[in-house]
Amino acid sequence: MIEGAPAPGGAAAAPGRRPARRDGPPLALLAAISAALLLAAYLVTGLLAGGFSLSPAATAASVLGELRHSDAIRTGAVLGFGSAVPLGIYAATVSARLRNLGIRAPGATIALFGGVFAAGLLSVGSLASWALSEPLASPQPALLQVVQNIGLAAAGPGRLAGLGLLLAGVAVPAAFTGLLPRPLVAAGLGLALLDELSTLTLFSDLPARLGVALAVLGLASLAWLTAAGALLPLTRQSPGARRPGRTPKE
Predict the structure, then answer these.
(1) Which uninterrupted H or E stretch holds 157?
(2) What percent of the chain has pLDDT over 70?
(3) Does residue 247 lie in a domain region?
(4) How much is the pTM?
(5) pLDDT tier at 144, thresholds 50, 70, 90
(6) Is the residue at 58 inside a domain?
(7) Per-residue confidence at 65, pLDDT binned at 50, 70, 90?
(8) How far is C-alpha 79 from the geometric centre of its chain's CA atoms?
(9) Number of domains the chain is built from
(10) Which helix (H) or strand (E) holds 217?
């Protein structure tokens, strides 16, 4: 083939740029779907089940009282579980995208681990709520309280810790390579820090008391992932690319 001639079936690629490649589903769409399903889960549970936020100090009567809204709790649990699926796909896709963009630092792997970790704990929390929605012949308030507390910790601070790693895994490499705008990178790092600090609430019953704040923080993190997914490029300027008007050295 003559050097410089266009490839068969299409025009020649622009000099100095790698050919465009599709490395998975749209990141912004995945994060938006995950956020929408999670928001729907919060609305269903909050509006129809009165919040369903049992605290470790809840009495037996309050436990059984809140579990009367079994249909709303089950619906919210299914929506929350559904939110975990696109989140896990996002983690795998963004990790592959970062590697295709030439990121060889641990950030891509950290993003993958954080996203899978967050999706897994969101699934655990949602399935715990689903289990509590099942009618029981002789409910035991103490056991129901333990299951609810596990779900609360998993879907709350535990999930946020994973989200923080996902955000940091994307934002830190982007900060060094200029893949994302600086204000967006700064916002991502700030949200990642807050996500990690949320684990401190596990030292008390704060996850139950701060349920709304933790929910808003999780949705804000998903909103950042949506924006980052929309702006993260598919290709990156080759390090050895020749600038326009510059003649090659002999």
Answers:
(1) none
(2) 72
(3) no
(4) 0.79
(5) confident
(6) yes
(7) low
(8) 15
(9) 1
(10) helix 211-231
Structure tokens at 184: 């967006």
Q: Vertex 101, ends 112 and 111: CA angle to 5°?
A: 15
Residue 73, SS3? helix
Tokens linked to 105: 């630092």
CB count, 10 Å around CB of 91?
27
Q: What is the rounded distance in angstroms from the CA atom of residue 47 to the CA atom of residue 217?
A: 19
Q: Which residue has the tokens 């999780």?
A: 218
102: left (phi over 0), alpha (psi -120 to 50) or beta: left
The H or E element spanning position 117 is helix 107-133
Residue-number span of the structural domain to which 74 is assigned? 27-231
Quote the CA–CA distance of 74 and 48 in Å, as a whole number. 11
Per residue in 193-205, pLDDT tens? 999 999 998 887 6
pLDDT at 110: 96
